[in-house]
## 1
Amino acid sequence: MRLYSTNLKAPEVSFQEALITGLAPDSGLYMPKDLPSFSKEDIDSLKDEPYPEVAYRVLSKVLEGEVDDGSLKIIAYDAYNYDVPLEEIDEHTYIMRLDRGPTASFKDFAARMMARLMQYYLSKENKSLTILTATSGDTGSAVADAFYGLDNIRVIVLFPTDEVSGRQRKQMTTLNDNITAISIDGKFDDCQAMVKQAFSDKDLKHLNLSSANSINIGRLIPQSIYYIYAYSKLRDYPEEIIYSVPSGNFGNMMGCVLAKNMGLPVKKIIASVNENDEVPAFLNTGDYEKIVPSKNCLSNAMNVGHPSNLARLIAIYGGVMDEKGNISKEADMDKLRNDVYSSSVTDEQTKTTIREIYEKYNILIEPHGAVGIKGLFEFREMTGDNTLAITLETADPAKFPEHVKAQTGVEPELPESLKRIESKDEFMDYLGTDYAAFKKYLQAKLV
Ligand SMILES: *Cc1c(COP(=O)(O)O)cnc(C)c1O
């Protein structure tokens, strides 16, 4: 597998290099040059297989020659030891729940696979590295949990003391071992700035710092698997399927684009966004304008005014968009519009949808999943297209208890994985926003 940078100004690299470096040297994002194709028979052969087996079979084709098969199988079964339920809500609509992982968000799918693939390459070469990451909540916990207990990787996660919930904090501080959590007396932007400065600090080069952020191709590829998995599980496969994906940075949605490019018969991908509607506007007009600052909406993991993965979407349709959002070569917009529809859902509609889905189907959903469902309903109303559709629930309702309770009167029950951490001891260090002090801390800690 060879990967190119979306900015087209960096050399092609192997999967291993793309995985370990993250961002291309020209600040572009890595994309695979070629993808394998899965025939109807290939997909049919997955229909009775559990999730980890599907993951193994898909990845063994995508990463052919990059990871040995025996190791890949062990990795897939170790990473995906939880359920991926498909709930039928009516005869042409399913909800796929991606919220059953250890941190109860869909980010577990990507983080757990990426962590294990990194560990695989590092241990083969007897190397180690330190992942340094800033978080405003969910990404940090998924990453910390995913890397927990891996021998060759240490994780240092910085979070703003007052901006994460108690439960989010506990997901990062109760692990200990190779995970260090630092509570920063500042804002998320301060944490981000300190991490960025450390990456470009020549004095820290020898510490082998790496980032695990969402633009890593190692986080994207695993997100194509559940689209193939879900389709293979439908009774009497429909000819085609529609997916609705609650989207912020568009990594999840790009997983669906990859799956479609590997032969999955996806008729339409609905990228459902909240009031940050820069992508629906772009698809309508062809002009791209980011939203600065991004709007605060109930589905807070999707408050993104300039999705980083948009450059990948444009690349796959033949265009070039740089990291600032400037388009130097236009994508095939007709083809893009034919494959992708993007719908913006207001906070009011999000609330109404949580209530309606509960009243009509007795199913609890949280704000991100509600945006996905509403986007699908809007698409159906507009087009009259009743093709079988799967919409994604990306977090457990118990992560947003106040919104769920306000609409349904029901207090969602905590999943076991989150219950377990409630009574655990917390370990964390405390720092301010002074970079010099943070640097000293790293130098002392990482000897
Ligand atoms: C991160 C996140 C999203 C958005 O996913 P993208 O890949 O950034 O589009 C949606 N829902 C939840 C719960 C998330 O944590």
## 2
Amino acid sequence: MGEFDQRLNNRLAERKKQGLYRKLKTMNTAPGPRVDINGEKQLVFSSNNYLGLANDQRLINAAKATLDEFGVGSSGSRLTTGNSIWHERLEEKVAQFKQTEAALLFSNGYLANVGVLSSLPEKGDVILSDQLNHASIIDGCRLSKADTMIYNHVDMIDLEKKLKEERSYQRRFIVTDGVFSMDGNIAPLDKIMTLASRYGASVIVDDAHATGVLGKHGRGTSEYFGIKPDVIIGTLSKAVGTEGGYVAGSKTLVDFLLNYARPFIFQTAISPASCAASSVAFDVIESSMNKRESLVSKVQYLKMNLQELGYHVIGGQGPIVPVIIGESQKAVSFADRLREKAIYAPAIRPPTVSPSESRIRLTLTSDHTDEEIDYLIEAFRFIGEELKVIT
Ligand SMILES: *Cc1c(COP(=O)(O)O)cnc(C)c1O
């Protein structure tokens, strides 16, 4: 083996030793609760396809019709040859859905965060970022010329202290996940908005996990709290069921990003067919009150039962149900034992979460049946006793 490969292998060995080695699994079937992974039938309790739209016939039909007419690729960046009526229709749809003046598409949510945070806060500004924000927010802050300060997770006293102390900056931005991806809790956005207006700061919310799920029409945290943040970032890859990212806000904001956000300028546009499917998804989401209500009650039922078994379950109203197991090796063993019982829910380990808080991160979708949820609870009882997570 060459010296270069040797070096890479040493790094990989470190990961294996820490129980942090990652590898891919192959899905042999379409997304849904019942799939074939690596040739095994599994019940999935970890997908972001909260409303089952990734495999919804209405979205598939919209994509197919557009594929026939517009082809498979967009052929260029939005500013060259890649912009179609489908992109513009979807942006209108997103703005209407999020009740903002305008919206701008990105290739995915990751790049929407990177695009906003690397362009909007300038040198002389400061970004106040929640400790548990998504990796794409962290990477966006790293690319920004503004300073970044981390405030303790959802700690409004710490946030206010930092807003007070850092008055010498030209502009202060507060950035937060709407629903935290690994903990499942909802950011206290009502309080954040109050602090922001008191101290003249701008608020950027990443609503990746809230969109489609929170609020009567599924508009996300803005509807849930009745607030209007300056910048709303989102993804089409979770409850919306497709792919792509977006930023929603004022017309001026969109015009600014179109001119300054490098991930927008230098990336090929997503395909028109994908846009067509997403547009239909927003119609479906707005009218899916029953699905959302049944999802919430399923989540409550699961949490209550796991807590009765003695588990430390965290999270909020949303479909993310993290169950704390402890050390990363134990969480990995737990996930392995679940898989033997045909349940797919991976262990979340450091560096994603802190070392003693490795967890099984469960998510529910509206497609899970009551019987499947009971089967999951029974597996948690059995494995938890076996591995002495519960007594
Ligand atoms: C998934 C996620 C993203 C990234 O979105 P993609 O479209 O998958 O790139 C960004 N922020 C949060 C909070 C997420 O959970």
